[in-house]
Amino acid sequence: MNIDPSEIIDKGIVKGLSIIGEKFSSGEFFLVELVGAAEPAQKVVKELLEPELKKKAEKTKSKGKVVIGTVQGDIHSIGKNIVATLLFASGFDVIDLGEDVSAEAFVNKAKEEGADLIGASALLTTTLPGQKRIIEALKAEGMRDKVKVIFGGAPCTPEWVEEIGGDGYAENAMKGVELAKKFISG
Amino acid sequence: MHNYRIDALSKEEVHKIDLATMEVLEKTGIIVENDKVLDLLEQNGAKINKQEKRVRIPEKVLKDGLKKVPSSFVVYSRKGEEVTIGGDQTVISSGAGASWILDIDTGEPRPATKKDSGHYAKVTDAMENFSLCMSPIIQDVTPSLVDVHSAQAMISNTTKTPWVCPGDGMQARYIIEMGAVLAGGMEEFRKKPIILGLASPNSPLRLASHDLDVALEFAGNKLPITLINCPNSGAAAPVSIAGTLVVTLAECLAFALVAQLINPGNAIAVGPAPTIMDMKTAIAAFGAPECGLVNAGTAQMLRYYNVPSFGCITSSESILIDAQTGYEIAWTTQLSMMAGVNIVVGIGLINACAGCSLEKLIIDDEVIGGIKRILKGIEVTDETLAVDVIDAVGPGGHYLAQKHSREHLRNEHWFPKISNRLGLQEWKKEKLDLWQVARREAKKIVESANPEPLDKDMEDEIAAIVERAEKEATSMQSG
Description:
Chain A is α/β, with parallel strands linked by helices. Chain A has helices at residues 5-26, 31-55, 78-89, 103-113, 129-140, 158-164, 173-185; strands at residues 65-70, 93-96, 117-121, 148-152, 168-170. Chain A has 7 helices and 5 strands; from the N terminus they run H-H-E-H-E-H-E-H-E-H-E-H.
């Protein structure tokens, strides 16, 4: 068929996912439809279309670049996975570092990729300080003003995020996407 | 397990309660305040003391009568939808008997009006889980025509089957006329009952004259008739639950026999509004856990007799919409539905059925929705065991993107409409409690246009019936 990969992304995948997103917002669809559509779409883009684009030296158009992961010592990744998938579905370029990610790894990757945003979740009170360490590491690298940071996870609160100097608190996956859009388009 | 059901009584206990009930009806008997019905009972083998209007019913006479009771029957909505009452079905009705309502704007209790009855019907109409509609006792109309006026308010505001409780034979006649208008003639009304009637005895062991008049109007016209009794445990029935069951069944079964003697094969449903006498305040408590037991026991016994059952079991003693309202509904309603009662009524009622609330109709719909999910039980098939899916996802993965999740979600998970499932930060935006959420929903419904307004000609004919009733009531007063 020889269709341009960027056209597949723009006119096919992005359009399809935005319809799913609207139906989710209206209450017709649930998380299983949203993630069920976004996850395979993400796989197709990462594994099939991006390599093609690289060959042509084209860049993927995106709303912005997000580095995401769970903090050091924390292996609770389902919430983070949902956020990553939904960010992708909303047109972000998502670099998922997975789970148990050190503050340095977050910062190095953000620097290397020129990321606009870092998202880090912690599900345990014992791993929550990992979020604070990300802010400290960004400051140490002189990058704090170059990247926005969103935190989430069960023990995380807006008060905590304010205390450690983060930019936003995401109570749930949808809120995370909303904040990302607000920070990056603004 | 599918259709998750429980039996409150063992087989041996069922047998004992049956024997005790038969003994009470045969030895103690029951008062029947209607000569025509007394004659019918005598002709069919019951022993009559005409002076005392007391009837002693031998077991064989009763059981022969019960054999004629249809184990289920169908009533219809104004749109022609079928509502099956009996068998293994459970249908839900908003409740009657409240003389006051929690004002939807102020939250304060005030006398219920005809307009409120219309709103009550409108909200009942909008609720997914309700099939039948009752009315509060409205306070702003001619007192002797409360039931005629509330029938009109219900008919105009819901397509669901109005379940009317005429206080006397005259009101029953006018309401039956309304039914004939809605159905398109008396013969059609008989074929497709579009209004359901209710009578109530005076516990203990007394079928009162006005209620027998109502029964004679409905069963005499071959229309379904239901009977509610109010065995107030400790006052109008023994303080023991088993004894309360015996009095309840004696009254319900005697009425069932009467309906079959008036018209053999007449569709009926019977059941209690079980209460316990609160021995500190003398209030008849509807939300007590014992009421759930009485209802569960009655439902099981009536299933044994093959008679469709109901129970007024969703009221609470609380005045406001609060935690007590919630737990009392849950105690009695879940138990009764698990016991397989055929009609759950009492939805919308508070403070021992003296008050009602539009918000509570909305909350009760939510409670019933959750109970229905519980009753559906756990489906165990190769497909639901999902071994292949578990293998495909593997350790550490997630199930959100699985086709299996999309295919089974709507059948496996129930979706609440008003329960809070927001996290703290989202909730903080409005800070609403359940009463406020329900009020917002109720207001939306009340303020929206009537989805299925009554045909203008029918509306006029119904209004003309009300007018004639008013004239008769006036002439009776002056005469």
